[in-house]
Model the fold of this input.
Amino acid sequence: MGSMVPSVTRFNLAPRVVTYPQGSRPPSAEPGVLALPQFPQRSSAVFGDGSHPTTRLCAGALDLLCRQHPQQAALDVGTGTGVLARIARARGAAFVVATDIDPAALACARAHSELDAHPVDIHFGDEAPDHWGARFDLVIANILGPPLQELAVALSRAVSPSGVLLLSGFTPLETPALRVAYRNAGMIVRSESHLGDWALLRLEHA
Done:
């Protein structure tokens, strides 16, 4: 009797992004749909496996932006499992940085990135968002509201003059305070999206 191939559990992370369990055969998908392998998540898993609405909000916005306008450089702040950085890389970003203050998250993200066998390496570290200067066409920060307020200046300084900043990890009730914090840092909100009880802001330089 031949070896059995594990069944595939396909999870729709975004309209054109799916994940599936590592060790399974990649699911059949329509042309242009990105399929990323994912390690099984445990109860103590690092945040960012795609099940949370904020990850899905970010993944959808990120994927759409990268397909509409190829991003040369992307920064994923609070990377968790690294799935957002992997999407940016798969969609053509030539320079990708993923940061997190949790060493376990960085180890998890690095392990996931190695599943892709992609020629572009992702730089993983715990640097401040503005460590690299204003060189990122796209900056994504999917973390809680209070840290996002504290990082308003640093995140704004990481965005290139024509770049885009995506923020999530907070509820609609928190968006007014975030709008003020980022307006004071020189950014303006171009759009606001919701999924369930969570929100995403898209910002650009004023």
Summary: The chain is about 30% helix and 30% strand. The radius of gyration is 17 Å. The domain at 53-205 is CATH 3.40.50.150 (Rossmann fold). The chain has one domain: 53-205.
